[in-house]
Specification:
The structure holds 2 protein chains of 2 kinds. Chain A contains 4 helices and 2 strands. Chain A is an alpha+beta fold. Chain A has one domain: Arc Repressor Mutant, subunit A, CATH 1.10.10. Chain A is elongated. The two termini of chain A are about 30 Å apart. The chains are: A alpha+beta, B alpha+beta.
Chain lengths: ~110, ~375
């Protein structure tokens, strides 16, 4: 799973969000590192909807403006859980490798 | 965010965004244009009146990517898409080949070939006239054949003529060559290919007959000919073969046509797949598409076979191999009727049109479950 996909699913984990809400949430979740652009965002949303990982929750329309809210589906929640578990194991493995490294690693607390 | 925080619309900026979104496929715009524009306006800087350069290229790139993207999670669709891409490539190469052949010179019709053969046999004693003191041949007359064969499944139109002449003194290749040169043909040198002819002796044994064979080529106005005489002391024949020389446009147009066909094939599958939203409709159209692909497979293979021949034999001073000639009725395959490729192509295109019609009959899926207005 690519990072933007992971972050979009993560953003939708707590509540349904519309496009701009997802952009802001992803920006917060990534500490400002990932700013989704609209083309990327809607390409990903379309793909995730086709895969059944997200669903349209509701729409709000005002004077030609449209906000479509997306929510994480059960299938999406499962996929996100699997990905979180995978990343956690990867991170744990990396941490363990760093602990075994001779010398002091700045920022890594001891076991 | 509440509905009171809807973005202010700058008409100029909004129009610019909508223009840019035309790069996206229409059914995608139907589903997403409003929400994308809303998001774009929300992300715009205060006072911004036109999209930034990076933003423009990003939207163009995203729109083009969307046009080529197959729906996710349907691996079989990828198989179909690749097959249709290949079929489209073969068909496009055939169209390119056909377009190139429109620029070739025309091979003379039967009357033109007959006239040419007559000039090549000027002053020649024909078989029927042999032995008569003042007789001169009538060229490809009642004792000869001249025809434009309309082409084969491998190369374009060719013409040929053959005439029977008397023995060693029946035909003079050098004189025929001079006749052509005088008529403006660019003539090549005469060579003397080997050959063997036998006759049966009175005691029943086969006896080899000495032969005097001559052959030369000539070219004029985009038409090439090869003239050959095969003579024994008893009789002989003069054969002429004609074909369009061809030109340098053939191979580039085959390549361009092939690439365009691949592109069209891929986009066709993407367009159809995006319109097939309901599983039932997808199954029906998918089955039709599979039949179309199977129907088109054989002519596509024939096209690719001819593409290979067109490249392999390019510039060899023989009849020009073309791709679309696979549709010319003939024994391309060792089975089936001679018009098999043409019939399969026609049937496949009808089936493909059926898939397209079925896809267009399906309304584009509408997302969303609830509309809230204020």
């Amino acid at each position: 799973m690519q990072e933007p996909t992971f972050l979009i699913l993560t953003a939708l984990a707590t509540q349904p969000l519309h496009g701009y809400g997802i952009v802001q949430s992803v920006l917060d979740l990534s500490s400002g590192d990932v700013k989704l652009r609209p083309g990327t965002l809607y390409g990903a949303l379309d793909r995730l909807a086709e895969q059944g990982l997200i669903e349209v929750d509701r729409e709000e329309a005002v004077e030609g403006r449209l906000r479509r809210y997306y929510r994480l589906s059960d299938s999406g929640a499962s996929a996100l859980t699997v990905e979180v578990d995978r990343l956690r194991k990867r991170a744990a493995a990396a941490e363990e490798q760093l602990r075994r490294r001779p010398g002091i690693i700045p920022g890594l607390s001891g076991a | 965010m509440t509905t009171s925080e809807w973005p202010e619309a700058d008409p100029t900026l909004e129009r610019a965004y909508k223009r840019l979104l035309r790069v996206y496929p229409s059914n995608y715009r139907d589903r997403h244009e409003q929400e994308i524009v809303t998001t774009l306006l929300e992300m715009a800087q205060p006072g911004q009146s036109r999209p930034g350069r990076t933003e423009v290229w990003h939207l163009i790139g995203s729109g083009l990517r969307q046009r080529f993207r197959l729906p996710a999670g349907r691996p079989l669709l990828w198989v179909v898409a690749v097959l249709v891409l290949l079929i489209g490539g073969g068909f496009g190469a055939a169209v390119g080949s056909w377009a190139s052949e429109r620029t070739f010179a025309s091979v003379p019709d039967d009357a033109g070939i007959r006239a040419l053969q007559t000039s090549l046999l000027a002053g020649t004693k024909s078989w029927t006239d042999a032995g008569t003191e003042a007789g001169t041949g009538s060229g490809a007359g009642s004792d000869g054949v001249a025809t434009n064969d309309g082409g084969t499944p491998w190369f374009g139109e060719t013409g040929w003529a053959t005439s029977t002449v008397s023995g060693f003194d029946g035909w003079d290749a050098d004189r025929a060559r001079q006749e052509l040169a005088a008529a403006g043909w660019r003539v090549g040198a005469i060579d003397h290919p080997s050959g063997k002819s036998t006759t049966m002796a009175e005691d029943g044994t086969l006896v080899d007959l000495p032969m005097r064979n001559s052959r030369f080529r000539a070219e004029r106005d985009g038409v090439s000919i090869e003239v050959s005489g095969w003579l024994t002391e008893l009789q002989g024949s003069v054969n002429t073969e004609l074909w369009a020389t061809g030109n340098a446009s053939l191979l580039p147009l085959i390549v361009i046509g092939g690439l365009a066909g691949m592109l069209a094939g891929w986009l066709f599958v993407v367009a159809v797949a995006r319109r097939l939203q309901r599983p039932g409709a997808a199954r029906a159209a998918g089955a039709l598409a599979v039949i179309a692909v199977l129907t088109l497979a054989l002519p596509a293979v024939a096209f690719y076979g001819n593409v290979i021949r067109a490249f392999r034999y390019a510039g060899n001073n023989e009849p020009v191999f073309t791709v679309h000639s696979a549709l010319t009725p003939g024994p391309y395959w060792p089975f089936g009727p001679q018009w098999l490729n043409l019939a399969l192509l026609a049937a496949g295109l009808v089936l493909g049109a059926g898939v397209l019609v079925a896809a267009r009959l399906r309304p584009a899926a509408t997302a969303g479950t609830q509309i809230v207005t204020n």
